[in-house]
Amino acid sequence: MVKLWAIVVMVAIALLRSTFAKQLSCTMELDRSCSLIGAKVSSDEILTTTFASSNPSTLSTVQFARSSLTGIPPAMFQTFPKLESLNATGSDIKQIQSRNFADAKTLQSLYLRGNKIHDLPDVAFFGASRLQTLDLSDNAIATIESTAFKRLRELKTLLLGSNSLTELQPGVFDDLSDLERLELQQNGLGSIDDRLFQGCHSLTALNVSHNALKTFNVAQFERRWSFDLIDASYNKLSVVRIPPNLRQLVAIGNGIRTVESTATNGSELILLKLPHNKLTSVDEVPVFDKLITLDLSFNRIREFDFRSAARFGKLVLLKLDGNQLESVSNSLTAPITHLKYVHLADNQFTHLDLNVLRTVPRILKLDLRRNQLERLAVTDLAGSFPVMVRIMLEGNRFRCPDSRPLLKELKESITAYAMTRNDCRKEENLIDGICCS
Ligand SMILES: *[C@@H]1O[C@H](CO)[C@@H](O)[C@H](O)[C@H]1NC(C)=O
Ligand SMILES: *[C@@H]1O[C@H](CO)[C@@H](O)[C@H](O)[C@H]1NC(C)=O
Ligand SMILES: *[C@@H]1O[C@H](CO)[C@@H](O)[C@H](O)[C@H]1NC(C)=O
User: So where does this one cross the membrane (predicted)?
Assistant: First the structure.
């Protein structure tokens, strides 16, 4: 008898469950999208939850807001067979099961940023073969099975930043032949295998910053076409080897002492940003003939001659702020006209003669802030630097009597320089726009 009752109760519960299986409804807007606000799906409801909307067969976009879903109910993709974009950002999602997206045949964008996903199982996105954008940033992903991204041959953007990855399985990106942009920043990656990206024939932008990489073979991205940007900042690299097809390399805050080029016949590099590393000379950077921006600020450079800048025939912006320069020299015999912006702030100049820049006549902006300049000499500013529109002098220690000749030159030129009272230290006076004492 007791047994029978138990069975009756269980059957009743089962019936109730299916009769009252959770249904999430939304109203389709004119743009074929709908929002599900405040939806709640617990782990035992994932497989039974159903969806409803007016005209579900044409719905293209679903957006969750203020929702708490343990997982994405697969019924969504059966009810909305034309779904192209699903945004479940910040929705408390904890799990993705293998083939969760088996029916997501038209899905192109999947936004799962800011959830609580710990792992991506085998064939996690199997079925969603039209996917182009997959945002998994800011989760707690520590494990990605090697087939998790299987068959995502149209995927262009994969965002895995701010997770807990310490390693990546060989082959995990092998099917991503259309992938253009990959974000892996802010994980705990200790190494990246040289063959990890061998299947990613279209990759042109990669962010591996804020990991724990001791080595990273940038040269593996040598291809016949150009690779746009690699950001390897805030790792523990001491060497970078730059392939000829790379256009921009950013590697701030490593321990880089050596920069190499693997180019034998010209390089595509236009931007090289290496602040906060351990380089001791501009000449340690090999020649890149198309380089436009070279940022070596906050390294350990003690000497600089403008001849080093002339090695880069297209260089426009040179940043050497925050080094240990006490002076600069110039052994150039012919002028260079490409260099237009020179940053020398936060060095240790006490005296500087601007005539040292006479072979850089097209300079537009010169930054000398926060040195210890007491005197800045120049003869014929307007004539030597006819296009210099700005000189930045804040945070120095100019002597008032010594700055009169400089002021005269400045007033006769187009160069803006003026400081304000706020730029001066307490004991300083502001005289004709220059703080001095
Ligand atoms: C996804 O939703 C979040 C808020 O829930 C919003 O901030 C974000 O812009 C949306 N993303 C897209 C691509 O619509
Ligand atoms: C790479 O990611 C870091 C951290 O999120 C970010 O600050 C940086 O701007 C990104 N790099 C590029 C080139 O977008
Ligand atoms: C080097 O580059 C020039 C022009 O960019 C090209 O004509 C030449 O064939 C290249 N040589 C080699 C060995 O690739």
Answer: none
- Supply the pLDDT for residue 3: 62
Nearest to 111 by CA among 146, 147, 67, 75: 67
Contact 285, 308 (CB under 8 A): no
Which of 180, 185, 189 maximizes ligand 2 atoms within 8 Å of its Cβ, making it the mutation to test the pocket? Answer: 185
Q: Ligand 1 atom 10: the closest Cα is on which residue?
A: 87
Tokens of 9: 């109760």
Q: What is the Å distance from ligand 2's center to 140 Cα? A: 19
Distance, in Å, from the CA atom of 243 to the CA atom of 220, rounded to the nearest integer, reads: 8
Helices (H), 344-399: 381-384
Report pLDDT for 7: 60
Residue type, 378: V
Indicate which residue's Cα is closest to atom 9 of ligand 3: 265
Residue with tokens 């299987």: 150
Any idea what the Cα angle at residue 294 is, between residues 288 and 299, rounded to 5°? 120
Which residues does a 6 A CB cutoff place in the pocket of ligand 3?
Answer: 265-266
**pLDDT of 21:** 79
Residue 422, both tokens: 């706020």
- Determine which residue's CA is closest to atom 7 belonging to ligand 3: 265
Ligand number nearest CA of 114 is 1
**pLDDT mean for each 10 residues of the chain (437 residues):** 58 53 84 91 93 90 94 94 96 93 96 98 95 98 97 97 97 96 98 94 96 94 91 97 96 97 94 98 96 98 96 97 96 95 98 95 97 94 96 96 93 94 93 93
- pLDDT number for residue 2: 54
Q: Please, are residues 282 and 304 in contact by the beta-carbon 8 Å criterion?
A: yes
> Closest Cα to atom 1, ligand 2: which residue?
207
Q: Of all atoms in ligand 1, which is nearest to the CA of residue 91?
A: 5
By the 10 Å C-beta count (0-12 exposed, 13-18 middle, 19+ buried), 186 is classed as: buried
- What pLDDT does 34 receive? 92
Ligand 3 centre to CA of 267 (Å) is 11
Question: Which domains does the chain carry?
Answer: 301-436 (3.80.10.10)
